[in-house]
Design brief:
The complex is a heterotrimer of chains A (462), B (128) and C (59). Chain A has 462 residues and is of the alpha/beta class. Chain A has helices at 2-7, 10-19, 24-42, 50-62, 107-114, 157-164, 181-187, 221-231, 275-288, 299-325, 331-341, 345-368, 398-401, 407-410, 439-452; strands at 45-48, 75-79, 118-123, 143-144, 147-151, 170-175, 190-193, 213-218, 262-265, 293-294, 371-375, 388-391, 394-397, 416-421, 428-434. Chain A has 15 helices and 15 strands. By secondary structure, chain B is of the alpha+beta class. Chain B has one domain: Nuclear Transport Factor 2, Chain: A. The chains are: A alpha/beta (462), B alpha+beta (128), C mainly alpha (59).
């Protein structure tokens, strides 16, 4: 039972619990046992909410209408920047441990639980989300289940690791420049970064208001769609949340991809790609019959602009903490934020101006195509602590360069599904990029790819 | 015979550059238009031997569109008279580090414009 | 020979009331140089005077 449940999808679990074939309590007890067994090695969880989880599971089992709950009994966990009632929202930091405990869950947790899911804990992340590795100086590194000497990627390191490692079938993370897509790539999971402004960011600890997105990780495309649908809905408490009607993606999955025009991003998006990244891209392109190569204009400049906006907004957010508690930061985060605090505003304004131009140019491509494919990361997971790698014959630092392909896309809030290609010995993901508000298109393509076997979340040997 | 008449070289260069753009963008329709539709057209590619337009067309249709990006170097176009030219270029692909590619094309002007009648592409190790 | 940016960093830290421990200086200077380089890459892109920023305020 336990091995089956370790790798069962959220969809499978919900069906079993909704029909009464399994109890939510058994499912949750099983997950908690697995977390206890695996977390000492994988270090994905920073908090386990077992009492609350069992209470919620019992409540689900007692519900007369549980057959209608789309995520009945599904255990899930959240990056520790989400407010969880009764916990301080640490956001991967030491400083935030002193914060008052949250009095209420974030709205995305509330919505998932309303759909029947069960929160089992909070997950490790890079400090204050300014990270692409999943290593945390205070809580230790999240470890990649496929090779525990390697990084999960970040900043949602625990989210990728917990799902890839079979501790939970569903996790939430955040993505500012790649923090859902990079761990999805290194850990071999499916990840959804929705359109900027689609899902509420209320009651979560921020990083860059201009660029922050929240979204799910799972081991199946359908699970991404189910959780995404449950989490949709306007929330005035998040100033960036856009008031759109609910647009359920799950019913669209069965439509397949006939008629969708899919292109491949060339130029910048293949420069510096290791052979694994190109192999994964080629397999996905072939599986969907994508032939046209498009150039996303000025992508290098877009990445530079995202970098500047990220650093300076991050510095503004943390200015007071930098003044008073500089020594309590991760030194790598502190040094970047201190430097960014000194960047003149004129240069930041230039970046925001460029951003409008770039958005308008890229949207022209979506008049011709429904989706664009690009690698998620240049390479598979580096070793924990690895400082440099060689891209295009040049030795570059790992940390900022892991996100070269993700940054220009989140910069303008386009929805992306990261799909894992099960290469050996390590997986690597491809980004399926759609037009704003067309998460349905990206999810349909992900589902079709999963059905052909071209993409899958590989099971690690644990 | 006049070698390298400027207007002829310019015409061929424009075709060469348009061909290059179609190649890295995998614009199969445009690539097919550049090669002469004739069983005598021959293309020796980096990994394939193609006799006749049909074989070349089939290759284009099946080719993976990934990792086609490349930078050109030392491109030389030489025109002999007004209806014949040879275009030679070196190239490097980020996806094939340590190798230098060579591409030669024979262009002939027909009533409907310039077409490639013969081409050869190959790679060798870069000199240390 | 001191980097001209060193003076800028020290002055900016003072003006913004930011702590600048001696052992942090070279990492901060390196980060600042990278950020400046990327910012200038963006700033040199020609845009018309009428170009609007991405975020537009609504009263």
């Amino acid at each position: 039972m336990s091995e089956d449940l370790a790798w069962a999808t959220a969809s499978d679990i919900a069906r079993a619990v909704a029909s009464g074939a399994a109890s939510a309590l058994d499912v949750v007890d099983d997950a908690l046992a697995r977390i206890e067994e695996r977390n000492p090695t994988l270090n994905g969880f920073t908090a386990i909410t077992s009492d609350r989880a069992r209470a919620q599971a019992r409540a689900i089992d007692a519900k007369p209408d549980k057959a209608s709950l789309p995520l009945a009994g599904v255990p899930f966990a959240v990056k520790n920047l989400f407010d969880v009632a009764g916990l301080a929202t640490v956001a991967g930091s030491k400083i935030n441990r002193a914060r008052a405990k949250a009095t209420r869950d974030s709205p995305l947790i509330e919505k998932l639980e309303a759909a029947g899911a069960v929160l089992v804990g909070a997950l490790n992340m890079g400090e204050y989300a300014y990270d692409f590795t999943g290593e945390n100086v205070h809580d230790g590194p999240s470890r990649n289940p496929h090779d525990t000497s390697r990084m999960t990627g970040g900043s949602s390191g625990g989210s990728g690791g917990a799902v890839a490692g079979g501790m939970v079938p569903l996790a939430l993370g955040s993505d500012t420049n790649g923090s859902i897509r990079v761990p999805s790539s290194f850990c071999g999971t499916f990840g959804l970064k929705p359109t900027y402004g689609r899902l509420s960011r209320a009651r979560s600890f921020p990083f860059v208001a201009s660029l922050d997105h929240l979204g799910p990780f799972a081991r199946a495309a359908r699970d991404l769609a189910l959780s995404y649908d449950a989490m949709q809905g306007f929330d005035a408490e998040d100033g960036a949340c856009v008031d759109r009607p609910l647009e359920p993606a799950t019913p669209e999955l069965a439509r397949g991809i006939a008629g969708l025009r899919i292109a491949i991003a060339g130029g910048y998006f293949q420069k510096g790609a290791f052979p694994e990244a190109l192999e994964a891209l080629a397999r996905v392109a072939q599986a969907v019959g994508a032939k046209d190569v498009v150039e996303i204009p000025e992508a290098a400049r877009a990445r530079a602009a995202a970098y500047v906006i990220t650093a300076t907004e991050g510095a503004a957010l943390h200015l007071d903490r930098l003044r008073k508690q500089a020594r309590d930061f991760d030194p790598a985060v502190r040094d970047r934020l201190l430097a960014a605090a000194m960047v003149p505003a004129t240069l930041v304004d230039k970046a925001q101006n460029f951003r409008r131009w770039y958005r308008d140019e890229v949207l022209k491509l979506f008049a011709r195509y429904d989706a664009i494919l690009a690698p998620a990361t240049p390479c598979t997971a580096p070793k924990i602590g690895q400082q440099t790698f060689v891209i295009d014959g040049v030795e570059l630092p790992v940390r900022p360069n892991v996100g070269i392909y993700t940054q220009p896309i989140s910069f303008i809030g386009l929805p992306v599904v990261a799909v894992p290609v099960p290469l050996a010995p390590l997986p690597i993901a491809v980004q399926i990029i759609a037009a704003p508000w067309r998460e349905d298109v990206a999810l349909r393509i992900a589902q079709a790819l999963e059905q052909t076997g071209a993409v899958a979340a590989p099971r690690p040997d644990l | 015979m006049d070698i390298d008449l400027p207007e002829v070289v310019a015409e061929v260069r424009a075709c060469f550059e348009a061909y290059e753009k179609a190649l890295v963008g995998n614009d199969v329709a445009a690539l097919n238009k550049f090669f002469r539709d004739d069983p005598r057209t021959i293309r020796y590619g980096a990994g394939e031997i193609l006799y006749g337009y049909d074989e070349i067309k089939a290759f284009r249709a099946a080719r993976s569109p990934v990792a086609l990006g490349r930078t050109l170097a030392r491109t030389v176009i030489t025109a002999f008279g007004r209806e014949f030219a040879v275009a030679s270029t070196l190239y490097e692909r980020p996806s094939a580090p340590g190798k230098v590619g060579r591409q030669m094309q024979t262009w002939v002007k027909f009533p409907d414009g310039w077409h490639v009648v013969a081409a050869h592409v190959s790679l060798i190790d870069k000199a240390k | 020979m001191a980097d001209p940016l060193d003076d800028y960093i020290k002055a900016a830290a003072a003006a913004l009331d930011l702590p600048l421990e001696a052992e942090w200086h070279s990492a901060i200077a390196a980060n600042f140089a990278v950020t400046l380089k990327l910012a200038n890459l963006v700033a040199e892109f020609p845009l018309p005077d009428e170009a609007e920023p991405a975020p537009i305020f609504k009263a």
